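Below sits my pick:
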Amino acid sequence: MIKTRNSFWLILILSLIITACGSRKYTVKSDTKAAKAADAMSNLKSKQLYKFITDWTGVKYRFGGLDKSGIDCSGFAFLLEKEIYGVTLPRISRDQAKAVNKKSIDRLQEGDLVFFSFGGNDVDHVGVYLNNGFFVHASTNRGVIVDDLNLPAYQRVLVKSGSVN
């Protein structure tokens, strides 16, 4: 009887442990920057654009670079627009800004360009708008990355946005 009772309790305890461990759910907080960036990527209309971005994500920044050993922001926008949309842009971000029709941020569409001025009045950085306030660019510190356009650091230096002529 004692043996049966001990076996019962042992089986019960083991069952509780196994079911408790098996029922854990691991979730990503949906309000994190990474989750929001992933959501922007999953909402892309163009699967070619999705593949292009995932192929380039993480490539380090290199001033004047134009390949996967290193790329700068205008080189990334240049290659993306050419490969995905068949549009040939000038190579330099300042000149790229001259080649777009100005559009307000709330009217931006996938593939539109966003321009920044971190060093004064002239355009010195470019990114490509995705959706829901996110854009992709070659960051000097983090390489090619999807980022939140609504961050104050970008809002302060955003100088132009629009679609290619």
Notes: Strands lie at 66-67, 70-71, 100-102, 113-116, 125-131, 134-139, 143-148, 158-164. The domain at 31-164 is CATH 3.90.1720.10 (endopeptidase fold (from Nostoc punctiforme)). The chain has one domain: 31-164. The mean pLDDT is 87.
